[in-house]
Write a structure and sequence with these properties.
Order of helices and strands: EHEEEEHEEEEHEEEEHEEE
Radius of gyration: 18 Å
Strand content: 35-45%
Distance between the termini: 43 Å
Strand order of the largest sheet: 2-3-4-1-5-8-7-6
Protein name: VOC family protein
Largest sheet: 8 strands, mixed
Structural class: alpha+beta
InterPro entries: Anthracycline_SecMetBiosynth, Glyas_Bleomycin-R_OHBP_Dase, Glyoxalase_6, VOC_core
Pfam families: Glyoxalase_6 (PF18029)
Number of strands: 16
């Protein structure tokens, strides 16, 4: 059965799966695969295994036997930014891609098969922020979170939240939970009451060289130690560390410039 957003409803048989719209994967498109593996392997303790190759060389980052992220290689002739991209679960990528288009977004890649692992598409919202849509072949996606080296949160930085949050709400069925403040334009998007992602409107403070973009937060055991490791490995510190209500956070970049955040949860 399919709902109006182009997402098939979960089966009633209790099969474990991510509900449509749940962040279920993060991937990085890099220029140098070997150097990128060395950086993240040292920082997060990841090991790497060959992955599906619908878009060229691709590896899965593995932690304690669990796949936690993917790293691919940008074609040398493409002037695309090196960036982490969150992927959101769908029970039918083709229908979700149509919903993206009908709501003013753009589908840049796919939908296409990722070998026998599933089906994917890469899209951008009306403001230009890039995200992925992922349909696992067996309908189930492993949920391995909360450990150092695993993704903890994805947050969109954009011009304003009203129209952009409405786009994601319509495509994925989120409920909006805005912060009521004259000084902060922020919306938490929820599924079945659970917070799944955030949208932060910063207006003219949005960096001109980046435009609207998603940031992936990775859990670490100690934010300050992880920041020191980033610097030691040739990365950059862009902000923090700072204490927040969600834990101690720092924004960093790998040696190729891909930005991400580190967070240690409250103790």
């Amino acid at each position: 059965m399919t709902d109006a957003r182009g997402n098939a409803r979960p089966n009633a048989d209790g099969t474990a799966r991510h509900a449509p719209g749940t962040p279920c994967w993060v991937s990085l498109m890099a220029r140098g695969l070997d150097a990128t593996e060395q950086f993240y392997g040292a920082l997060f303790g990841w090991e790497f295994r060959p992955g599906p190759r619908p878009l060229g060389p691709y590896v899965r980052a593995v932690l304690d036997g669990h796949a936690v992220a993917g790293i691919g290689v940008l074609p040398p002739d493409r002037r695309l930014p090196v960036a982490w991209t969150p992927h959101f679960a769908s029970d039918d990528v083709d229908l979700t891609a149509e919903a993206v288009r009908s709501c003013g977004g753009t589908v840049g890649v796919g939908p296409l098969d990722a070998d026998d692992a599933g089906r994917l598409a890469l899209a951008s919202d009306p403001s230009g922020a890039v995200f992925g849509i992922w349909q696992a072949a067996d309908g189930a996606v492993e949920d391995f979170t909360g450990r150092p080296g695993t993704p903890a949160w994805n947050e969109l930085t954009t011009f304003e939240t009203t129209n952009v949050a409405k786009f994601y709400e319509t495509v994925f069925g989120y409920d909006e939970d805005p912060v009521v403040s004259a000084d902060l334009d922020y919306v938490t998007l929820r599924l079945d009451g659970r917070p799944v992602t955030g949208v932060h409107g910063v207006g003219n403070a949005l960096p001109r060289d980046r435009g609207p973009h998603w940031t992936t937060y990775f859990t670490v055991a100690d934010t300050d130690d992880a920041v020191d490791q980033v610097l030691h490995l040739g990365g950059q510190v862009l902000g923090g560390p700072r204490d927040t209500e969600h834990g101690r956070v720092a924004t960093v970049a790998d040696p190729e410039g891909a930005r991400f955040a580190l967070v240690r949860g409250p103790r």
